Amino acid sequence: MMFGLRDHLMAPGAIIQRNPRQPTRADLTREIERLRDDYQLITGDRFDWFHCPILFRDEHTELCRAHVVNQGFVGSTKAWTVQRKDVDNFYGSFFESEFVLIDRLGPGAIQRTIENPGLAKKVPVKISLKGDRVDFYRYKRGPVPDEHTRIIVEGPSGIARSLVLKMSPDKVERDVSPDDWELSVEKDLRLGYNYSLSAGGHFTGWDVLGNFFVRNCTYEKRQVRLNAASHFWHFRNMVRPVVSHTPMLGGTVSDGQMYICETTQKHRWAFIVFVKLPNSLHAVVLLILDHPDGAARFYDFLSSGTSNLIVRFCKFEAGTFHAHPRTTNFEWPGINASDKLR
């Protein structure tokens, strides 16, 4: 299995409904009652209104049917759960629309962005030479300054666009191999109660998402995005896009397939679950705090770059985890500190 290098973040779910039809208010009521029973099974008590697995509060507020994967993704799973409407709207309006945009770009994203100036404002193109960023602008007409270099980039439709590098022609041509150049598009997205009420669930629900919501829910979008850059940077290693995979993975919500991360002493320290979008698959590491060694391994993983993971394939089926008898190793790619948002 190969992982890519972009960040992504997924909210933790509670118990999930996989109802293919449009859920009704009666479905929502039944689901709340089922969650109430599940909560009592874990805690011995019943919540009054709804215990939010992100804010860890039970208070009277408007609830909604929250889709596990944003419905803006064409063909995504219809699975849903109950959530506070204020929390669901906050993350939906400030962050999820950006993920929909990135996924819809799909293969050929760079060329499509270059062809479309409007799209480029939302998803900037980055040009690098030997890892260093090169400034550029779109060519309009007339002569190009001597200290700049005009280049041609052709998109998937065959349309050629002119860009101008803020670099002299001799520097562009001198001792530079085509392999030294890189074009990329980038978007700043440093964005059952059995798990939600565990120590690991508290970390994912409150530390990653709930705390940020409480501190930012009254701000305008621009300020929220600025604050998100520093907050979610601490959790950057928890998510990666999957470049290739065997076996075929349809997303953990749909097929129940995941991996369990283990220490060298076989202590479990995380799940790796998968989120399937129409054009991509993402792996998300969710903390398990069953043992001090596992906790130490997770926090080392959070702060490290590239990490070698000992994992065991697992499938959740009919209420039971079925684990493979042997472990394997994954190379989890790191992110350069220079990629941090400012």
Describe this structure in words.
With 342 residues, the protein is α+β, with helices and mostly antiparallel strands. 32% of the residues lie in helices and 26% in strands. The chain has helices spanning 25-43, 85-105, 109-115, 117-122, 169-173, 193-196, 199-216, 221-233, 252-255, 292-303; strands spanning 2-3, 63-67, 80-84, 125-129, 132-134, 136-138, 149-154, 160-165, 181-185, 239-244, 257-262, 268-277, 280-287, 307-317, 320-323, 328-332. Strands 1, 10, 11, 12, 13, 14, 15 and 16 form an eight-stranded antiparallel beta sheet that branches. A three-stranded antiparallel beta sheet has the order 5-4-9, with helices on one face. Strand 7 (149-154) and strand 8 form a beta hairpin. The radius of gyration is 23 Å and the shape is globular. Mean pLDDT is 75; it is low at 2-21, 187-191 and 337-342.
Can you summarize this structure?
This protein is an alpha+beta fold.
Percent helix among the residues? 25-40%
Distance between the termini: 32 Å
Major β-sheet profile: 8 strands, antiparallel
Tally of helical runs: 10
Order of helices and strands: EHEEHHHEEEEEHEHHHEHEEEHEEE
The total count of strands amounts to 16
**Can you tell me the overall shape?**
globular
The total tally of domains equals: 2
Classify the oligomer: single chain
Low-confidence stretches: 2-21, 187-191, 337-342
Task: Tell me what portion of residues adopts beta-strand conformation.
Answer: 25-35%
Gyration radius from CA atoms, angstroms: 23 Å
Given helix and strand content, the structural type is alpha+beta
Mean pLDDT: 75
